[in-house]
User: Fold this.
Amino acid sequence: MTAVTRTAVEPLPAGTRPVPGHRILRHLARTGRLDLYGSWNEERACRCVIEVPRPDLRCPQMEDAARRPRRGGACRARSPRLSTAV
Assistant:
């Protein structure tokens, strides 16, 4: 089993565009596996929440899986997820 690399990594700064059409406004929280960001959706002109896998928890298996074609959401936890804020 490969060990997960853990190093202190700062959250993405405001203004970063991790997903096309979305701009990070601020870092909201860091959970066990994800960083949560408040973002602005330029297409819909509304605020959203983006969940991004923590960069300090990446392992070689995740990097390999990210390069493979996706099958029906099997790799959802490895890419940013969007949800519209109310």
In short: The chain is about 10% helix and 35% strand. The longest strand covers residues 22-30. The helical segments are 60-67. The longest helix spans residues 60-67.
